[in-house]
Write a structure and sequence with these properties.
Blueprint: H1 8-20, H2 24-41, H3 49-64, H4 71-83, H5 87-104, H6 111-125, H7 129-146, H8 154-169, H9 173-191, H10 196-205
Helix pairs in contact: 1-2, 2-3, 2-4, 3-4, 4-5, 4-6, 5-6, 6-7, 6-8, 7-8, 8-9, 8-10, 9-10
Length: 207
Amino acid sequence: QLQHLDNLPPLLDSLLVTARAQDPDVASREPRLLQVLTLTDLGRWREAREPLTHAEALFAPLRKDRRYSARAFAFARAHWALAADELAQAQESVDEARAIVMATAPREDPAWHRIHHLQARVHLAQGRAAEALGDAEEALTRSRGWAIEPEASMTVAEDLLLRSQARHALGERDTARADATAAQRHAQAAAGADHPLVARARSESLR
């Protein structure tokens, strides 16, 4: 969340080498997903295709059995697909995550926050601002409910920024700017003024 990403790829490569010396399937699952997420967040989503393909194979048995842990793959693939502008695949991944969590966890499970956040992003990318606002509201309610620091949460900041974007798309400029300003405040308090989310929120507040 602090976005110190530049040094992560070589560290993950080293972790995968160590994992292969143990149980290659089990130990490699999470590092592969971290590779996907890190490369995607660095803007290198094309490079993330390879670890995503590897992760898909590693998670295949868990996905087939609808195991709770398989949700992590669905979340990572949705995040990648949004960056790659593969919106149909992003929606398919959100639907898969929702089906897994519905079958394996209660409505209070933290995974529901991620589902609503990703669904809002997909709706927004599809131009469905009203639907995006509804899911952003639900994600924000959940993140505020379990934030350790009520005024310094990166998760709350991300949800506020997402709601701001949905409100801008609906023409609700005043409330959108208020959300963006609040997102900037949260992100700066949680991670410092240099965090990329601070700049993104500031830019959104000036629209």
